[in-house]
Specification:
Radius of gyration: 18 Å
Shape: elongated
Structural class: mainly beta
CATH topology of the largest domain: Elongation Factor Tu (Ef-tu), domain 3
Number of helices: 2
Number of strands: 12
Strand content: over 45%
Distance between the termini: 33 Å
Number of domains: 2
Strand order of the largest sheet: 1-2-5-4-3-6
């Protein structure tokens, strides 16, 4: 994938007869799509196709995208399972110690003693904080994205160091 683009969601369905795309966003806030004027969809061959946004709606956790080039349910259904991208340059700078999800997903998670817990597979938001889903083989760990747990994020080396709070993980599982 071209490093100039970042993955921001996946088309999971069609909505209505006018060809809206139902997108599962990989962004913290589904409303962030409203700041875009176009999206790029990855087709089956791996190429990116730019499509202009006409409308953005939020329905629960999903985003409903109206695209000028998609005017029917049939056309919308042809994009199901397509990944949705936007140019990296469209992202603004974040304050220190804040990160975009695409920067966090894929990091290796290690404990303070250096032992590896796994890699961050996905992130999901809750009302109080995000939760990192860390995968290691067939095991999954849910790690809260809070200051008491996340000790350091080293993007250059792709490592997140965490501190285990009592009761967070069963040490026999590691």
């Amino acid at each position: 994938m071209d490093e100039d683009y970042i993955l921001i969601g996946k088309v999971v369905g069609a909505h209505g007869v006018r060809g809206l795309l139902k997108v599962l966003p990989y962004t913290e806030s589904p409303a962030s799509f409203k700041a875009l004027n176009a999206v790029w969809l990855k087709d089956k061959t791996g190429g990116l196709q730019e499509l202009r946004l006409e409308s953005v709606g939020v329905k629960g956790r999903a985003v409903l995208l109206g695209l000028s080039e998609v005017d029917s349910r049939t056309k919308a259904e042809s994009f199901i399972n397509s990944e949705v991208y936007c140019p990296r340059k469209w992202l603004g700078e974040l304050p220190a110690d804040e990160y975009y999800w695409h920067q966090i997903i894929g990091l290796t998670v290690q404990l303070e003693d250096g032992s590896v817990l796994g890699k961050i597979k996905t992130i999901f938001p809750t009302n109080s904080n995000d939760v990192y889903v860390v995968e290691n083989g067939s095991k999954e760990y849910l790690i809260p994205a809070i200051e008491d747990v996340v000790v350091n994020i080293d993007l250059a080396n792709k490592i997140m160091t965490i501190r285990l709070l009592e009761g967070l993980l069963n040490m026999n599982d590691i």
